[in-house]
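Course exercise 7: structure representation. Students receive a sequence record and must write out the corresponding structure in token form. The form below is the worked example handed out in class, using Allantoate transport (54 residues). Read each field label carefully; the graders check that inputs and outputs are placed in the correct fields and that the protein name is recorded exactly as given.

STUDENT ID: A-19
EXERCISE PROTEIN: Allantoate transport
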Amino acid sequence: MGTESEVNAAQAPVGTRDEAIAIVGEEQHSIDPIVAARAVRKIDLFLIPAMIIG
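STUDENT ANSWER:
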């Protein structure tokens, strides 16, 4: 279970919580390992070289 502060934050009005968590939600979503590997490969091929050159 969550700590007391996490439970209180989950029950607080949206104005006092993080807006991103209010939009996305606090439940974990399952991530397909194939999709995760594809995302990492795209990062390695496109973003890392751009950061080195840039």
